[in-house]
Specification:
Blueprint: H1 2-17, H2 21-36, H3 41-54, H4 64-81, H5 90-105, H6 109-128, E1 133-137, E2 143-146, H7 148-154, H8 158-161, H9 172-179, E3 190-197, E4 203-214, E5 220-229, H10 231-249, E6 253-258, E7 263-266, H11 268-274, H12 278-281, H13 296-307, E8 312-319, E9 325-336, E10 342-351, H14 353-398, H15 405-430, E11 439-442, H16 443-455, E12 462-469, E13 476-479, H17 481-499, E14 504-515, H18 517-522, E15 529-538, H19 545-550, H20 568-578, E16 582-587, E17 593-600, E18 622-626, H21 630-642, E19 646-650, H22 653-662, E20 669-673, H23 681-691, E21 697-701, H24 709-714, E22 719-722, H25 727-740
Parallel strand pairs: 12-14, 18-19, 18-20, 20-21, 21-22
Antiparallel strand pairs: 1-2, 1-5, 3-4, 4-5, 6-7, 6-10, 8-9, 9-10, 11-13, 14-15, 15-17, 16-17
Helix pairs in contact: 1-2, 2-4, 3-4, 4-5, 4-6, 5-6, 14-15, 14-21, 15-20, 16-17, 17-20, 22-23
Length: about 750
């Protein structure tokens, strides 16, 4: 109080020396400060006269009006800012006090009144246009006064609102809060959140401050209400809470960083995916998640984009706390201040690791399917060509003297033809369209045999370990044993090549496992059930991500020129897929490679292979030979006639049908190609058997996805021969069919 008294005296003295509006504004500000300190308007008046009576400030008669103006501004500011019971009738008291003082000081009462009236008008204007809604009620709860703000906010005319009960504008719940206490019991300011009703029925949320005013005799005079409309602020707060809750509970990872990438906020989803707690991740720089999957240009472009205020969208591969890689679909946007400057960045991250893995598997499957279709499509024509090359070369070879240089050259041609035949066979195995004779096979002995063969060719710097866990009646799959052996040999050979320079460990394991929903989701080609898991792992140089994405592509190899064809793993992939299984690879540079092969297990006992007895290579019979390639028809006639058979050759399936229809008993055997115009070999066979049901038929094909050996025999066809074939192979098939007849 003493400090405010000194401040008041100083301002009053300055105003008396040089009267003016600046000092009156300071007086008004000082009055508000007094109200904030709990000083009443009456105390301000007493202080004013105390200062003058003590002589602290000199007051000449000509300065009386200036003194009263200063006092009036300070008093009114105090009363408006902090009304009190003592100041209930302040305007009248102020007027009376100032009036009496002015009469005593000099006779210019009318002038003083004009000044006071002007100041009172200022007070009224401040009251009416105050930001808050101000109104008062009497003991009966009737509104006796209100400012313009109240009437305007609630949609009333001011004169129609005065005289209405408090329940007109106060909701029942809030009215109960005050009514239970009684207006006479409210002795101090209170601030309560209430709903105030507009005339149109809408509700306004407000903070209501209530102050009971008492007369000098202690009786309740009235109750003042000060209401601040907080509807928009509450709505904004609720929106903020909803937004914060949504961010906290969002499935996407959300991060806020400063301009340098230091994390200032992380929602639970981001922390969970990255493997950190929120305490651990906040304060870290985003570099803690960085991997080598992206080059420097990638990050440079991203930072240049967001620093200039643009939004960046893309996919980022991050590293989790435990070292695993996860891929995010990320959008980074700038956060700006009021002046438009970028202060922070917000990053929204959706974990797409699983989706990307499935997309990659789908793309790989589609790519392999497309390559397989292409490979199979050319196999028929290529095998026809090889059949002609090998067949005519064999005939020329047999008719050439042993000492002839031409015979040596023909021998080279035959070797090249057989190599080409093997390559086509690999392509068909990759495309999963080669003819396979499957039977129940026990895999463990094949693994043992393959490793036994492999050990002899491996350097001593490579250690080989085998681990097999198979139940008594398990370990059997429906497969071609030769192809299973080929799968294992290819995988082990690749592993050995990866360790040939520096040595290492080659480990092969075979165990039974059950594939569940989780694994079928990761590999859609799999079905739930029991499988054999064949694992081949090495500690060699490993592969990077780009190499792994192409590892099963035909003709792709990481070996030096001349060291590999790139077909080994492509064939393995085709064989495994054709057996209803799947193959996966995991590798990192300098950390080795692991291949996992899953093959569906079956119940039953393995079939022991029996070596077939050799068949004679010739005979006598009348044969109808059909192929749409005239070159192959001519070759077939020469080969078969050389073996002692009587041959009728046709390059048209329809002509062959007419020839047979004319003399159905003329022929002992029909040999036909599968893929021909008008009538395919299968359709021709059906027509022939309609005419003569017991006619033996051999079906030949270079490639067909419409029929295989099993389907051919089910259709009544006796034998199924894949091109390219040598004369001996065809002769054996003919002999077997005629012997059965």
């Amino acid at each position: 109080m003493e400090e405010l008294r000194r401040e008041y005296a100083g301002l009053l003295a300055a105003h008396l020396e040089h009267p003016g509006e600046p000092h009156l504004f300071k007086a008004y500000a000082l009055g508000k400060k007094c109200a904030e300190r709990g000083i009443t308007a009456s105390e301000v008046i007493n202080t004013h006269f105390s200062i003058l009576e003590s002589g602290e400030v000199s007051l000449p008669d000509e300065k009386v009006i200036d003194s009263q103006e200063f006092l009036l501004e300070a008093t009114l500011a105090t009363a408006v800012s902090n009304p009190s019971p003592v100041d209930a009738d302040l305007p009248e008291k102020v007027l009376a006090a100032l009036y009496n003082e002015a009469v005593l000081r000099f006779k210019e009462l009318s002038k003083v009144k004009d000044q006071l009236r002007t100041s009172e008008d200022k007070y009224r204007a401040l009251y009416d246009e105050a930001f808050a809604m101000l109104f008062s009620i009497d003991e009966r709860g009737t509104i006796i006064i209100c400012n313009n703000t109240t009437a305007r906010t609630l949609g009333y005319e001011k004169n129609t609102l005065i005289g209405r009960p408090l329940s007109t504008i106060l909701c029942a719940e809030c009215l109960e809060k005050f009514s239970n206490r009684g207006v006479t019991s409210i002795a101090k300011n209170e601030e309560v959140e209430c709903l105030i009703l507009r005339q149109d029925g809408q509700e306004i949320r407000a903070l209501v401050q209530v102050k009971a005013v008492f007369s000098e005799d202690g009786r309740s005079s009235h109750v003042d209400f000060t209401c601040r409309d907080i509807t928009e602020s509450r709505r904004a707060e609720e929106e903020r809470v909803r937004l914060a809750t949504a961010i906290e509970q969002a499935a996407e990872g959300i991060v806020i960083t400063d301009r340098k990438g230091t994390i200032e906020y992380s929602n639970p989803a981001f922390a969970r995916v990255c493997g950190y707690s929120r305490t651990e991740i906040i304060g870290q720089n985003l570099r803690v998640l960085k991997t080598d999957a992206h080059d420097a240009a990638f990050y440079q472009n991203m930072w240049q984009t967001i620093l200039r205020g643009d939004t960046w969208t893309g996919r980022i591969i991050n590293r989790t706390k435990d070292g695993a890689l996860c891929e995010f679909e990320t959008t980074i946007s700038p956060i700006r201040d009021g002046l438009g400057g970028v202060t922070n960045f917000i990053s929204v991250n959706r974990d797409v690791t699983h989706e990307v893995r499935l997309e990659r598997q789908l793309r790989q499957a589609q790519k392999m399917e497309a390559i397989g279709t292409l490979a199979g499509g050319i196999a028929h024509d290529f095998n026809n060509i090889l059949t002609a090359i090998i067949g005519y070369t064999e005939m020329a070879f047999q008719g050439t003297p042993p000492e002839s240089l031409v015979r040596r050259d023909l021998d080279h041609v035959l070797k090249a033809g057989h190599r080409a035949t093997e390559l086509v066979r690999q392509i068909l195995a990759f495309s999963r369209r080669s003819e396979q004779e499957r039977q129940p096979v026990e895999v463990a002995p094949i693994v043992k045999e393959a490793l036994k063969l492999l050990r002899a060719s491996l350097p001593t710097t490579i250690d080989v370990y085998q681990h097999t866990v198979i139940s008594d009646k398990g370990g059997v799959v429906l497969a071609d044993p030769t192809q299973i052996h080929q799968v294992l040999m290819n995988l082990c050979t690749n592993a050995a090549d990866a360790m040939r320079d520096q040595g290492g460990i080659l480990e092969v394991s075979l165990v039974e496992t059950i594939v569940n929903d989780h694994e079928t989701e990761a590999s859609p080609d799999l079905k739930e059930g029991r499988y054999l898991r064949l694992t081949v792992s090495d500690t060699g140089h490993g592969m990077d991500r780009q190499a792994m994405e192409r590892i099963f592509d035909p003709f792709y190899t990481t070996k030096a020129p001349g060291k590999g064809t790139g077909m080994g793993l492509a064939v393995v992939h085709g064989i495994v897929k054709s057996h209803g299984g799947t193959i996966t690879v995991a590798s990192e540079p300098e950390k080795g490679t692991t291949f996992n092969v899953l093959l569906p297990e079956i119940e039953g006992e393995a079939v022991l292979e029996v070596e077939a007895a050799p068949k004679p290579a010739g005979g006598s019979a009348r044969i109808l030979f059909v192929d749409d390639e005239e070159l192959l028809v001519e070759l077939g006639q020469q080969v078969l006639e050389g073996l002692g058979y009587e041959v009728v050759g046709k390059s048209s399936s329809t002509e062959a049908l007419e020839t047979f229809r004319a003399q159905p008993d003329r022929f002992d055997l029909v040999i036909t190609d599968m893929t021909m115009p008008r009538l395919t070999g299968r359709q021709l066979a059906q027509e022939l058997m309609t005419i003569r049901p017991n006619i033996p038929i051999i079906l030949c094909t270079g490639y067909s996805d419409l029929i295989d050996g099993k389907q051919a025999k089910e259709a009544g066809i006796r034998e199924f021969v894949m091109k390219p074939y040598a004369a001996g192979k065809l002769a054996k098939a003919i002999y077997q069919v005629l012997e059965e007849k």
